[in-house]
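Following up on my earlier thread - several people asked me to post the actual chain instead of describing it. Fair enough. Here it is, all 411 residues.
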Amino acid sequence: MSTLQKKKTIDGTQMLGVLCPLIYFGSYITRKNYAIVIAEIVAAEAIGEADAALADTLALISYGIGQVVSGFLGDRFKPKTLITTGLTATTVINFLMAIIPDPYIRAVLWCINGFAQSMLWPPLVRIMAASMSEEAYSKTCVNVNVAGIGGTVFVYLTASLIWIPYFSWKYVFVFSALLCTIIDILWIVLSRKTPQPGPTVRKKADVAPENKLSKKALLSSGILLIAVAIIMQGMLRDGVSTWVPSFMMDTFGVDSHNAILKSVLIPLLGMVFLKIAQFVQKKFFSDEIIAATVIFAAGFVFSALLFFCYDKNEYISLALAAIITGCMHGVNLFLVCVVPAKFEKYGIVSTMSGLINSLTYVGSALATQGFALTKQYSGWTVTIGSWLLIAAVGIACCILAYKPWKKFKAM
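Reply from S.P.:
Thanks for posting it. Predicted structure:
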Protein backbone atom coordinates (compact mmCIF):
# COMPACT_ATOMS: atom_id res chain seq x y z
CA MET A 1 0.00 0.00 0.00
CA SER A 2 1.39 3.40 -0.97
CA THR A 3 1.86 6.17 1.59
CA LEU A 4 -0.90 8.17 -0.09
CA GLN A 5 -3.31 5.21 -0.01
CA LYS A 6 -2.47 4.58 3.64
CA LYS A 7 -3.07 8.23 4.49
CA LYS A 8 -6.48 8.11 2.78
CA THR A 9 -7.42 5.00 4.77
CA ILE A 10 -6.37 6.58 8.05
CA ASP A 11 -8.20 9.80 7.23
CA GLY A 12 -11.29 7.81 6.25
CA THR A 13 -11.27 5.87 9.52
CA GLN A 14 -10.88 9.08 11.50
CA MET A 15 -13.77 10.59 9.58
CA LEU A 16 -15.81 7.51 10.47
CA GLY A 17 -14.94 8.07 14.12
CA VAL A 18 -16.61 11.47 13.86
CA LEU A 19 -19.60 10.50 11.71
CA CYS A 20 -20.71 7.49 13.77
CA PRO A 21 -21.29 9.51 16.97
CA LEU A 22 -22.92 12.28 14.89
CA ILE A 23 -25.39 9.78 13.42
CA TYR A 24 -26.26 8.46 16.85
CA PHE A 25 -26.81 12.00 18.12
CA GLY A 26 -29.28 12.44 15.25
CA SER A 27 -30.84 9.07 16.02
CA TYR A 28 -31.50 9.89 19.65
CA ILE A 29 -32.96 13.37 19.13
CA THR A 30 -35.46 11.88 16.66
CA ARG A 31 -36.24 8.75 18.70
CA LYS A 32 -36.06 9.68 22.37
CA ASN A 33 -37.98 12.94 21.93
CA TYR A 34 -41.39 11.28 22.22
CA ALA A 35 -40.54 9.58 25.51
CA ILE A 36 -39.11 12.84 26.86
CA VAL A 37 -42.27 14.87 26.17
CA ILE A 38 -44.76 12.10 26.96
CA ALA A 39 -45.68 13.68 30.30
CA GLU A 40 -46.46 16.97 28.53
CA ILE A 41 -48.50 15.18 25.86
CA VAL A 42 -50.58 13.54 28.62
CA ALA A 43 -51.17 16.94 30.23
CA ALA A 44 -51.76 18.94 27.03
CA GLU A 45 -53.88 16.38 25.19
CA ALA A 46 -55.81 15.18 28.26
CA ILE A 47 -55.23 11.51 27.47
CA GLY A 48 -54.33 8.60 29.73
CA GLU A 49 -50.76 7.51 30.37
CA ALA A 50 -51.33 4.08 28.85
CA ASP A 51 -52.83 5.66 25.70
CA ALA A 52 -49.93 8.09 25.41
CA ALA A 53 -47.47 5.24 25.90
CA LEU A 54 -48.97 3.32 22.96
CA ALA A 55 -46.91 5.21 20.36
CA ASP A 56 -43.64 4.63 22.20
CA THR A 57 -44.50 0.99 22.90
CA LEU A 58 -45.26 0.32 19.22
CA ALA A 59 -42.07 2.11 18.21
CA LEU A 60 -40.00 0.01 20.60
CA ILE A 61 -41.54 -3.19 19.24
CA SER A 62 -40.94 -2.18 15.61
CA TYR A 63 -37.45 -1.04 16.53
CA GLY A 64 -36.68 -4.40 18.06
CA ILE A 65 -38.04 -6.32 15.06
CA GLY A 66 -36.28 -3.92 12.71
CA GLN A 67 -32.97 -4.54 14.48
CA VAL A 68 -33.16 -8.19 13.49
CA VAL A 69 -34.07 -7.37 9.89
CA SER A 70 -31.47 -4.61 9.55
CA GLY A 71 -28.81 -6.76 11.17
CA PHE A 72 -29.46 -9.47 8.60
CA LEU A 73 -29.39 -6.96 5.73
CA GLY A 74 -26.30 -5.20 7.08
CA ASP A 75 -24.17 -8.31 6.49
CA ARG A 76 -25.51 -8.77 2.96
CA PHE A 77 -25.81 -5.27 1.49
CA LYS A 78 -24.00 -1.95 1.69
CA PRO A 79 -24.44 -0.75 5.27
CA LYS A 80 -24.13 2.91 4.26
CA THR A 81 -27.26 2.67 2.12
CA LEU A 82 -29.25 1.36 5.09
CA ILE A 83 -28.03 4.21 7.27
CA THR A 84 -28.98 6.86 4.68
CA THR A 85 -32.44 5.33 4.27
CA GLY A 86 -33.02 5.23 8.02
CA LEU A 87 -31.92 8.83 8.61
CA THR A 88 -34.07 10.16 5.78
CA ALA A 89 -37.18 8.25 6.87
CA THR A 90 -36.92 9.30 10.52
CA THR A 91 -36.54 12.93 9.49
CA VAL A 92 -39.77 12.87 7.47
CA ILE A 93 -41.70 11.10 10.24
CA ASN A 94 -40.61 13.62 12.88
CA PHE A 95 -41.93 16.44 10.71
CA LEU A 96 -45.25 14.60 10.36
CA MET A 97 -45.57 14.05 14.13
CA ALA A 98 -45.86 17.81 14.56
CA ILE A 99 -48.76 18.25 12.14
CA ILE A 100 -50.88 15.12 12.70
CA PRO A 101 -53.53 15.81 15.39
CA ASP A 102 -54.86 12.27 15.88
CA PRO A 103 -52.94 10.39 18.64
CA TYR A 104 -53.61 6.99 17.05
CA ILE A 105 -52.25 8.08 13.67
CA ARG A 106 -49.24 9.48 15.52
CA ALA A 107 -48.85 6.08 17.17
CA VAL A 108 -48.72 4.41 13.73
CA LEU A 109 -46.20 6.98 12.49
CA TRP A 110 -44.02 6.49 15.54
CA CYS A 111 -44.19 2.74 15.01
CA ILE A 112 -42.79 3.28 11.50
CA ASN A 113 -40.16 5.56 12.98
CA GLY A 114 -39.02 2.71 15.20
CA PHE A 115 -38.30 0.58 12.15
CA ALA A 116 -36.50 3.47 10.39
CA GLN A 117 -34.33 3.98 13.48
CA SER A 118 -33.44 0.28 13.52
CA MET A 119 -31.59 0.74 10.23
CA LEU A 120 -28.79 2.67 11.95
CA TRP A 121 -27.11 0.67 14.71
CA PRO A 122 -26.39 -2.76 13.11
CA PRO A 123 -24.85 -1.22 9.93
CA LEU A 124 -22.80 1.16 12.10
CA VAL A 125 -21.40 -1.75 14.11
CA ARG A 126 -20.70 -3.60 10.86
CA ILE A 127 -18.73 -0.64 9.46
CA MET A 128 -16.81 -0.01 12.69
CA ALA A 129 -15.89 -3.67 13.26
CA ALA A 130 -14.63 -4.03 9.68
CA SER A 131 -12.73 -0.74 9.55
CA MET A 132 -11.23 -0.23 13.02
CA SER A 133 -8.78 -1.86 15.37
CA GLU A 134 -10.16 -3.36 18.58
CA GLU A 135 -8.98 -0.33 20.57
CA ALA A 136 -10.45 2.15 18.08
CA TYR A 137 -13.69 0.17 17.97
CA SER A 138 -14.03 0.24 21.75
CA LYS A 139 -13.30 3.96 21.89
CA THR A 140 -15.77 4.75 19.10
CA CYS A 141 -18.46 2.60 20.75
CA VAL A 142 -18.16 4.70 23.90
CA ASN A 143 -18.22 7.93 21.86
CA VAL A 144 -21.29 6.74 19.94
CA ASN A 145 -23.13 5.97 23.19
CA VAL A 146 -22.08 9.29 24.73
CA ALA A 147 -23.27 11.12 21.61
CA GLY A 148 -26.62 9.35 21.83
CA ILE A 149 -27.02 10.33 25.46
CA GLY A 150 -25.86 13.83 24.56
CA GLY A 151 -28.73 13.96 22.08
CA THR A 152 -31.09 12.97 24.88
CA VAL A 153 -29.72 15.75 27.10
CA PHE A 154 -30.13 18.20 24.23
CA VAL A 155 -33.81 17.31 23.80
CA TYR A 156 -34.45 17.45 27.56
CA LEU A 157 -33.00 20.96 27.76
CA THR A 158 -34.53 22.44 24.62
CA ALA A 159 -37.94 20.87 25.35
CA SER A 160 -38.11 22.05 28.95
CA LEU A 161 -36.50 25.49 28.55
CA ILE A 162 -37.76 26.59 25.12
CA TRP A 163 -40.38 24.57 23.28
CA ILE A 164 -42.82 23.50 25.99
CA PRO A 165 -42.94 26.70 28.12
CA TYR A 166 -43.05 29.10 25.16
CA PHE A 167 -44.47 27.13 22.24
CA SER A 168 -45.70 23.52 22.17
CA TRP A 169 -44.39 19.98 22.49
CA LYS A 170 -44.86 19.72 18.70
CA TYR A 171 -41.89 22.02 18.12
CA VAL A 172 -39.64 19.41 19.72
CA PHE A 173 -40.29 17.16 16.71
CA VAL A 174 -39.86 19.97 14.16
CA PHE A 175 -36.51 21.05 15.56
CA SER A 176 -35.29 17.46 15.86
CA ALA A 177 -36.22 16.85 12.23
CA LEU A 178 -34.35 19.97 11.07
CA LEU A 179 -31.17 18.91 12.85
CA CYS A 180 -31.44 15.36 11.53
CA THR A 181 -31.78 16.74 8.00
CA ILE A 182 -28.39 18.44 8.38
CA ILE A 183 -26.84 15.26 9.79
CA ASP A 184 -28.28 13.21 6.94
CA ILE A 185 -26.73 15.55 4.36
CA LEU A 186 -23.34 15.48 6.14
CA TRP A 187 -23.45 11.66 6.20
CA ILE A 188 -24.28 11.40 2.49
CA VAL A 189 -21.46 13.77 1.52
CA LEU A 190 -18.70 12.82 3.98
CA SER A 191 -19.22 9.06 4.15
CA ARG A 192 -17.77 8.82 0.65
CA LYS A 193 -14.36 9.41 2.24
CA THR A 194 -14.70 6.56 4.73
CA PRO A 195 -13.95 2.82 4.33
CA GLN A 196 -16.73 0.99 2.51
CA PRO A 197 -17.00 -2.63 3.69
CA GLY A 198 -18.91 -4.94 1.42
CA PRO A 199 -21.06 -7.95 2.31
CA THR A 200 -19.45 -10.35 4.81
CA VAL A 201 -21.82 -13.31 4.53
CA ARG A 202 -20.34 -15.89 2.18
CA LYS A 203 -21.43 -19.26 0.87
CA LYS A 204 -20.79 -22.05 3.36
CA ALA A 205 -18.27 -23.63 1.02
CA ASP A 206 -16.19 -20.43 1.11
CA VAL A 207 -15.99 -20.23 4.90
CA ALA A 208 -12.92 -21.66 6.62
CA PRO A 209 -13.72 -24.52 9.05
CA GLU A 210 -12.54 -22.47 12.05
CA ASN A 211 -14.91 -19.65 11.03
CA LYS A 212 -18.04 -21.76 10.92
CA LEU A 213 -20.43 -21.18 13.80
CA SER A 214 -22.78 -24.06 14.54
CA LYS A 215 -26.11 -23.60 16.27
CA LYS A 216 -24.92 -25.92 19.02
CA ALA A 217 -21.82 -23.80 19.67
CA LEU A 218 -23.89 -20.62 19.69
CA LEU A 219 -26.52 -21.97 22.08
CA SER A 220 -23.87 -23.36 24.43
CA SER A 221 -22.08 -19.99 24.54
CA GLY A 222 -24.42 -18.58 27.18
CA ILE A 223 -25.95 -16.20 24.64
CA LEU A 224 -29.51 -17.00 25.81
CA LEU A 225 -28.64 -15.99 29.36
CA ILE A 226 -26.97 -12.85 28.03
CA ALA A 227 -30.14 -12.20 26.03
CA VAL A 228 -32.30 -12.24 29.16
CA ALA A 229 -29.84 -9.94 30.94
CA ILE A 230 -30.05 -7.51 28.01
CA ILE A 231 -33.86 -7.49 28.22
CA MET A 232 -33.63 -6.69 31.94
CA GLN A 233 -31.14 -3.90 31.20
CA GLY A 234 -33.50 -2.44 28.60
CA MET A 235 -36.40 -2.47 31.04
CA LEU A 236 -34.47 -0.50 33.63
CA ARG A 237 -32.60 1.84 31.31
CA ASP A 238 -35.52 3.04 29.20
CA GLY A 239 -38.47 2.22 31.43
CA VAL A 240 -37.15 4.22 34.37
CA SER A 241 -36.07 7.21 32.29
CA THR A 242 -39.40 7.32 30.41
CA TRP A 243 -41.56 7.52 33.53
CA VAL A 244 -39.40 9.60 35.88
CA PRO A 245 -41.08 12.90 34.82
CA SER A 246 -44.49 11.39 35.59
CA PHE A 247 -43.11 10.03 38.86
CA MET A 248 -41.93 13.54 39.80
CA MET A 249 -45.31 15.03 38.89
CA ASP A 250 -47.32 12.40 40.80
CA THR A 251 -45.15 12.17 43.91
CA PHE A 252 -43.91 15.73 44.41
CA GLY A 253 -46.41 17.85 42.44
CA VAL A 254 -43.82 19.13 39.95
CA ASP A 255 -45.27 20.65 36.77
CA SER A 256 -44.50 18.95 33.44
CA HIS A 257 -41.78 21.19 32.00
CA ASN A 258 -39.94 21.39 35.34
CA ALA A 259 -40.18 17.61 35.71
CA ILE A 260 -38.67 17.22 32.25
CA LEU A 261 -35.95 19.80 33.01
CA LYS A 262 -34.97 18.09 36.27
CA SER A 263 -34.94 14.72 34.52
CA VAL A 264 -32.01 15.89 32.39
CA LEU A 265 -29.92 14.56 35.27
CA ILE A 266 -30.71 11.05 34.01
CA PRO A 267 -28.88 11.22 30.65
CA LEU A 268 -26.14 13.42 32.15
CA LEU A 269 -25.32 10.72 34.68
CA GLY A 270 -25.65 8.20 31.85
CA MET A 271 -22.67 9.81 30.11
CA VAL A 272 -20.69 9.83 33.34
CA PHE A 273 -21.44 6.17 34.02
CA LEU A 274 -20.39 5.17 30.49
CA LYS A 275 -16.96 6.61 31.18
CA ILE A 276 -16.87 5.01 34.63
CA ALA A 277 -17.89 1.65 33.15
CA GLN A 278 -15.17 1.89 30.51
CA PHE A 279 -12.60 2.73 33.22
CA VAL A 280 -13.78 -0.09 35.49
CA GLN A 281 -13.48 -2.68 32.74
CA LYS A 282 -10.11 -1.42 31.56
CA LYS A 283 -8.57 -1.27 35.04
CA PHE A 284 -10.28 -4.08 36.96
CA PHE A 285 -12.38 -6.43 34.82
CA SER A 286 -11.11 -7.34 31.37
CA ASP A 287 -14.09 -9.64 30.78
CA GLU A 288 -17.24 -7.87 29.62
CA ILE A 289 -19.59 -10.29 31.44
CA ILE A 290 -17.88 -9.78 34.80
CA ALA A 291 -17.98 -6.01 34.28
CA ALA A 292 -21.68 -6.17 33.41
CA THR A 293 -22.38 -8.26 36.53
CA VAL A 294 -20.66 -5.76 38.82
CA ILE A 295 -22.51 -2.78 37.35
CA PHE A 296 -25.83 -4.65 37.39
CA ALA A 297 -25.22 -5.27 41.10
CA ALA A 298 -24.70 -1.55 41.63
CA GLY A 299 -28.01 -0.93 39.89
CA PHE A 300 -29.69 -3.37 42.29
CA VAL A 301 -28.28 -1.57 45.33
CA PHE A 302 -29.48 1.84 44.15
CA SER A 303 -32.89 0.40 43.24
CA ALA A 304 -33.17 -0.85 46.83
CA LEU A 305 -32.27 2.58 48.19
CA LEU A 306 -34.88 4.21 45.97
CA PHE A 307 -37.54 1.69 47.01
CA PHE A 308 -37.16 2.63 50.69
CA CYS A 309 -37.02 6.42 50.27
CA TYR A 310 -38.67 7.30 46.93
CA ASP A 311 -41.26 9.67 48.45
CA LYS A 312 -39.00 11.42 50.96
CA ASN A 313 -37.13 13.96 48.84
CA GLU A 314 -37.53 14.71 45.13
CA TYR A 315 -33.85 15.41 44.51
CA ILE A 316 -32.62 12.26 46.25
CA SER A 317 -35.21 10.21 44.38
CA LEU A 318 -34.25 11.79 41.08
CA ALA A 319 -30.55 11.21 41.73
CA LEU A 320 -31.13 7.55 42.59
CA ALA A 321 -33.27 7.00 39.48
CA ALA A 322 -30.57 8.66 37.39
CA ILE A 323 -27.87 6.42 38.89
CA ILE A 324 -29.96 3.31 38.15
CA THR A 325 -30.30 4.24 34.48
CA GLY A 326 -26.62 5.25 34.41
CA CYS A 327 -25.66 1.77 35.60
CA MET A 328 -27.77 0.26 32.84
CA HIS A 329 -25.95 2.38 30.25
CA GLY A 330 -22.77 0.72 31.50
CA VAL A 331 -24.32 -2.74 31.20
CA ASN A 332 -25.47 -1.81 27.69
CA LEU A 333 -21.92 -0.91 26.71
CA PHE A 334 -20.62 -4.37 27.65
CA LEU A 335 -23.48 -6.60 26.53
CA VAL A 336 -24.81 -4.74 23.48
CA CYS A 337 -21.66 -3.09 22.12
CA VAL A 338 -18.80 -5.43 23.05
CA VAL A 339 -20.48 -8.86 22.78
CA PRO A 340 -21.47 -8.57 19.05
CA ALA A 341 -17.89 -7.72 18.04
CA LYS A 342 -16.83 -11.19 19.21
CA PHE A 343 -18.67 -12.61 16.17
CA GLU A 344 -16.54 -10.67 13.67
CA LYS A 345 -14.51 -13.74 12.65
CA TYR A 346 -17.74 -15.52 11.72
CA GLY A 347 -18.81 -12.66 9.41
CA ILE A 348 -22.08 -12.03 11.25
CA VAL A 349 -21.34 -8.90 13.28
CA SER A 350 -24.28 -6.93 11.92
CA THR A 351 -26.65 -9.88 12.30
CA MET A 352 -25.69 -10.49 15.92
CA SER A 353 -25.64 -6.77 16.68
CA GLY A 354 -29.19 -6.46 15.38
CA LEU A 355 -30.40 -9.51 17.30
CA ILE A 356 -28.72 -8.46 20.53
CA ASN A 357 -29.73 -4.81 20.37
CA SER A 358 -33.32 -5.77 19.56
CA LEU A 359 -33.50 -7.45 22.96
CA THR A 360 -32.85 -4.12 24.67
CA TYR A 361 -35.98 -2.78 23.08
CA VAL A 362 -38.01 -5.85 23.93
CA GLY A 363 -37.23 -4.82 27.49
CA SER A 364 -37.94 -1.16 26.74
CA ALA A 365 -41.35 -1.99 25.26
CA LEU A 366 -42.27 -4.23 28.18
CA ALA A 367 -41.27 -1.52 30.64
CA THR A 368 -42.86 1.44 28.87
CA GLN A 369 -46.31 -0.14 28.86
CA GLY A 370 -45.78 -2.41 31.85
CA PHE A 371 -44.63 0.32 34.24
CA ALA A 372 -47.52 2.54 33.10
CA LEU A 373 -50.06 -0.17 33.89
CA THR A 374 -48.35 -1.15 37.14
CA LYS A 375 -48.34 2.45 38.32
CA GLN A 376 -51.92 2.96 37.20
CA TYR A 377 -53.29 -0.04 39.12
CA SER A 378 -50.79 -0.58 41.95
CA GLY A 379 -48.97 2.73 42.47
CA TRP A 380 -45.31 3.71 42.55
CA THR A 381 -44.33 1.50 45.49
CA VAL A 382 -45.02 -1.69 43.54
CA THR A 383 -43.59 -0.20 40.34
CA ILE A 384 -40.27 0.69 41.97
CA GLY A 385 -40.24 -2.66 43.77
CA SER A 386 -40.37 -4.37 40.37
CA TRP A 387 -37.09 -2.66 39.47
CA LEU A 388 -35.37 -4.63 42.25
CA LEU A 389 -36.62 -7.92 40.83
CA ILE A 390 -35.55 -6.95 37.29
CA ALA A 391 -32.01 -6.09 38.45
CA ALA A 392 -31.75 -9.35 40.39
CA VAL A 393 -32.67 -11.39 37.30
CA GLY A 394 -30.04 -9.51 35.29
CA ILE A 395 -27.34 -10.25 37.86
CA ALA A 396 -28.21 -13.96 37.98
CA CYS A 397 -28.13 -14.30 34.18
CA CYS A 398 -24.72 -12.62 33.92
CA ILE A 399 -23.26 -14.88 36.62
CA LEU A 400 -24.58 -18.01 34.91
CA ALA A 401 -23.39 -16.86 31.48
CA TYR A 402 -19.79 -16.12 32.50
CA LYS A 403 -18.20 -19.57 32.13
CA PRO A 404 -19.91 -20.66 28.88
CA TRP A 405 -19.21 -17.26 27.27
CA LYS A 406 -15.54 -17.41 28.28
CA LYS A 407 -15.27 -20.88 26.76
CA PHE A 408 -16.97 -19.68 23.56
CA LYS A 409 -14.52 -16.78 23.15
CA ALA A 410 -11.58 -19.16 23.47
CA MET A 411 -12.79 -21.30 20.53
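Residues 1-10, 201-207 have pLDDT under 50 and may be disordered. That should answer part of your original question.
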